[in-house]
Amino acid sequence: MKIVAFILFIFGGLFLNAQVKVPPKIEKEIQAVFDMQEKAWNEGNLEKFMEGYWKSDQLVFVGSRGPTYGWQETLDSYKKGYPDKKTMGTLKFETLSIFKIDRKTVFLIGKWELTRESGNVSGHFSLIWQKKKGKWVIVADHSS
Fold this sequence. Notes:
Blueprint: H1 2-16, E1 20-21, H2 24-42, H3 46-49, E2 60-63, E3 66-69, H4 71-81, H5 85-88, E4 90-102, E5 105-115, E6 121-132, E7 135-143
Parallel strand pairs: 2-7
Antiparallel strand pairs: 1-4, 2-3, 4-5, 5-6, 6-7
């Protein structure tokens, strides 16, 4: 429940406050995580892909089946939905907008695309990133 309240607070703050540009250094650090995730996904390595997420029971992922709480639960959900490399296909991320919430929190809206033999799929996502132990990780993911 705490994470849901936090997300509502963050989203509310985004609309009440002026959107603050993210410094180029932080954008590069976050892009490096996206690059790592794309590479890991495209190699079929979900464990490596999940390194971009906060390894915590407080991680929240909201997808078509509703919210999933926790890093391990999110990994398990990915494994269930994408059991093999063929199903995973080739992933590509595109950042549409990125805003600084505070010195350790960033809000990002983007697009994802999967190219695969069984049919291409795409959607959008909103992510809350935080700097934890010196690195940027996703603490909340809402993907559609």
